[in-house]
Design a protein that fits this description.
mainly beta, five-stranded mixed beta sheet, 22-stranded antiparallel barrel, disordered N terminus, about 45% strand, single chain, 12 helices, about 1000 residues
Length: about 1000
Amino acid sequence: MQKILPILVPLAVAVSLPAFAQTRQVTGQVLNATDRTPLPGVSVVIKGTTTGTATDPDGRFSLPLPADGNPTLVFSFVGFEPFEARVGDNGTVPTVQLREKTTELNDVVVVGYGTQRKRDITGSVASISAEQVAETPIARADQILQGRVSGVQVTQTNSEPGGNVSIRIRGTNSINTGNEPLFVVDGFPGAGDLNSINPSDIESIEVLKDASATAIYGSRGANGVVLITTKKGKVGKGTINAEAYTGVQIVRHKYELMNAPEFARYLNEVNPPVAPSTTPVYTDEQIAAMGEGTDWQDAILRPARLSNYQLGFNGGTEETRYNLSFNFFDQEGIIINSGFKRGTVRLNLDKKINSKLSFNFSSQLAGTFEKRAFVNSQGGSFGGALLDALRFSPINPVRDENGNFTYSNTPQPFVEDVGNPVAFAEKVKDRRNTARGLLNVAANYELLPGLTLRISGGLDYNNQQTDVFRPSDVFLGRLNGGSASRVQSNRYSWLNENTLTYDKKLNPNNALNVVVGISEQKFYFNQFGASGTNFFTNTLGSDNLSIAANVGTPTSTRNSNALASYFGRVNYRLFEKYLFTVTMRADGSSRFGKNNKWGYFPSAAFAYRLIDEPFMKDLTALTDLKLRLGYGVTGNQEIDNYQSLAQYGADAYASGSARLVGLEPLNIGNPNLRWESTAASNVGVDLAFLENRVSITADAYYKKTTDLLLRVATPRTTGYPNIYLNAGSVENKGFELAVNTTNFDTKTFGWKTNLNFSLNRNKVLDLYSVSELPVGASSSSLFVGAGLGNTSILREGEPIGSFYGYQFDGLWQSDDEIKAAGRTGVRPGDPRYVDQNGDKAITAADRVIIGRAQPDFIYGLTNTFSAGGFSLNIFIQGVQGTDVLNLNRYELESGITTTNKLKTVVNRWTPDNPNTNIPRAGSTIRRSTGIVSDVLEDGSFVRLKTVTLSYTLPKFSKVLRQASVYVTAQNLVTLTDYSGYDPEVNSFGNDNLSLNTDYNAFPSTRSFTAGIKVGF
């Protein structure tokens, strides 16, 4: 036995060594590189094998190693970059820190009073980056939203430089109050005048769409919220960025009007000789000698210049960061003597005093200068340059043989006496100049780790002057010997907000973000105006109103309103996949009655990151899946000040030679007046496939607005026409889809596509004391009968923007047909309208809903291609299933009989040409009937909105950091059946009840620009 032991012991040791080697372990811990918190569930695999494990709740792991060598471990986790680490000779690895993937999911998104990772968002929020803003030369920041964000309809209501844009987020909530979203610029709410904001200064735009996202803004969140964040300084070596572009705009589409011979024949037909021996208005010899005549549209429209110059400085250290920019934008209008200029200076400064205290400073000074064309007028003798260019006789020249303007239309009395549009455009002065300052200062102090106090104060100051002069030698000024007016207004608000933010990852499985705050904001407005008529000289214009023979009564006004608010939001994250948001805001407003000063607006939302569940890991093609559910209540307070109070106004009358002034009551006060309230629910899903090469966001929503701030008719015995009550309700429901794809992504070629699609269904649910109400503005000069000008109807069960009128049924063809129908007052060739009730007369009872302004759906499609240094961006915008009321056709086809007409009128009805829908010459039935379907047109369109080709030059200098050149075409092609200047129009601006109405609106343009960007 003793002889055997020396042999067995070494043998046993030798046999046991491999077994011991097979059981050796490597241990370690995995942390989040951002905040050094443990990461549970991280996959740890020996490279080249299937042997692996996962980290525990503390981020720790233990893994058996093979007998020989130092293998490499591969660490992977959803949302983080994979990492490899080699096991050391001692069988250990250093602490591993995983970095989050630089994907959209980890992008920081601005939300109300804070920021969040996109992956943690529970509401419906869309974001537009600075790169997307820079893709298109735009005049206003809100124009970038057009066709690029699902659920957002942006309408350029007036194409005039500096003209209005109307925005509807998820439909129209209100009837008599505002429907525009709340704009928040660098944390300052209510900064709605975007004409003075330089788009090149914008870092990002976030659109908060559902109640869970907007409820933090309470009484102003019902119509959605648009957050605009301007560029801040970045740590690093200072940079200089410069950009310049210039281009030209041309009219996109013109009306085809009669030329001189065609109009002469038309006048002869409208004014037939009273006897065979009577000379016609124009003889055949005169007509033959006319030529084409004057194209008055060409006479007042021009190719217009467009230019922009931007210079920016950016940089700083960890302690001090700055962004300074200068901008000048200059856009001529295509109507002569119109245009818009803007100059801005912006300084954003961030200063870190120490590890706990920092300051943020955001400021902008801007001046805008507008030369306005006289458009969107009521027509008639106040037509203005554009409308009169459509109506003035093409037989007349712009100037006579002496070089003087042909001021009046001829020949009289056969044509209406309207003014020379070129004289009007050149001589009438209409200026609006605005100076604006926007300032916001904030101090941030870390009271405890994760707990920060922020105190901010801001001021928004807006001074505006409007200056109008119509000299006595143009048609419109001749009516009263020349007229002038000046209006000076000041609008400003101050803001104080104080917030406490607690942001802490409590442990690997729990994270909490809490914001509580108080806010106070006050708004002031004052205005002064003066006017005069009958000037003995035009030399001074409006610079000395005292020389007017008739000086108008000066006007002045001053008002203010205030908001006081308390708000809070809790975001709770559990296991990185269960996301909860709860929000509450209480707003007190001076606008509402003494019995209802305060309103309360709660919301709650939940999101479930299903992709982070273990059972989803086998679905390797799916890289993100999040379900969202939210509900909340928001408000609307956009009514004029003092509506809850009984108001008094000045009234005056003459007693002999004395002017006596007194006060009279203006309205009935309502001490119970309160907010409109919009309750909204949202269900959404976020999907991503193939390593986020394809991402999809879909949302369905339902909104019901109750307690509408509705003007309700009162009995005549009250002495007042109406009163503001909380009455009635409206609903909106819809669906939104956004799809982003990376189709190719190689070193030599890239192709990305962004598609968004939205549909919204609007319905009036309750109108309080009536079931329907005629509404909508038109033109007081178009219709000869009283009460004919309402364009739409509010009717329970129907959407806002329902056009209401008579259904076209062709033309009357003969006296026998008219007699058989029992009709009177019409002639062959006049329009025929459906007798809905069969009483053989066309009366108000025969009106029906003839169309709808709200579209069936809207969409946008962007494709971006890149190859080498070239990039091509193509943006298509579309609106489908909307109607436009073309009021211009009342005058240009069959309205006022003695003004110029559309070319289509050449094909008018005559006994020899019965197969047409164009009424006979001289027919005025349309005007005397009112709103009719034969001038209601399909306003659907598909527009090649923007095409931009850019080239980034190779780096050829150490000083020049980057340089690129580009060319852009806008509104290049529009496919539409609409016959007017543009289907995207509303002559009545942001009026809720006069949607899609086209009368005397500024024509849209097609533009071509070329620019250069350099960085040092």
